[in-house]
Amino acid sequence: MSNISQSGTYRGSVIDRGLSNSSGGHLQLEITMQATERYNEEAQVWEPFNYEDSEAQAYLNLVTGKEKENSVNCRQIMRALNWDGMSWSPLNDLNSGLAGQIQWRMGMETYNEVERCKVQGIDAYDAAPGRKVEKLDAAAVRALDAKYAGILKGLGGGPKPKTARPATPAPAADPTPSASGTPMPTPSTTPTPSASPESAKPKRGRPATPKAAAPKAAALSQADAWTAYTDKASDKTDLEVQNTWVAVVKDVYGGDENVGEDWSGVVAECLQRLGL
Known about the structure:
By secondary structure, the chain is an alpha+beta fold. It is 26% helix and 24% strand.
């Protein structure tokens, strides 16, 4: 547990680190750090931090509940420790050659009515100091819009009402007067089939067997399509799944607004591109 009790940005040495399982049973990286400097945000300078309580403990989940990588935490670790992301082993070995000095941010959090100072993120030792927000990229955000379409609809962000097509005006009546002095009636645009003796006779032979209609894929809403897609692509990474979805919507349809109410075609194209 961290014994630093002040919020702020610190930097110092990594004195221990290793892999463990979180309370929820997920793989995590524990890092114990000792601060040597604290950033003065008003003066915008690093100042020595020579206090007895100078240790901080970071707990960073590496995978999510669906056994996929926690991309935000993994990117932080790669940036802070110069980890290449190719194997977990270096993270579990303090002498593996990863960065021995890092920077981190601490803030006050309340849990079970107890307030304590916790590590909220890590960064490279010489990174620009200050509190930062870890933002997802634009592609990931668009994928989230699809994933949580049902929630957004409930918040008022549902599909826009359909615009009614303007009615086709009926052809104008012929203004040329008839012999009686009244305008000629408007001719019907629907051709009237002429009856003939041959057509009136019923044709002999077996009645034509109607062709069976080809089975049609069930229509899927945007939210249902995302769920079906991610279930079938569960062996792919989150980033690969999201980027493929965004690419298909953009390349094939030109944007979300052009897909319509049935998103099953998006699912089929995504799975085909992923080789599933």
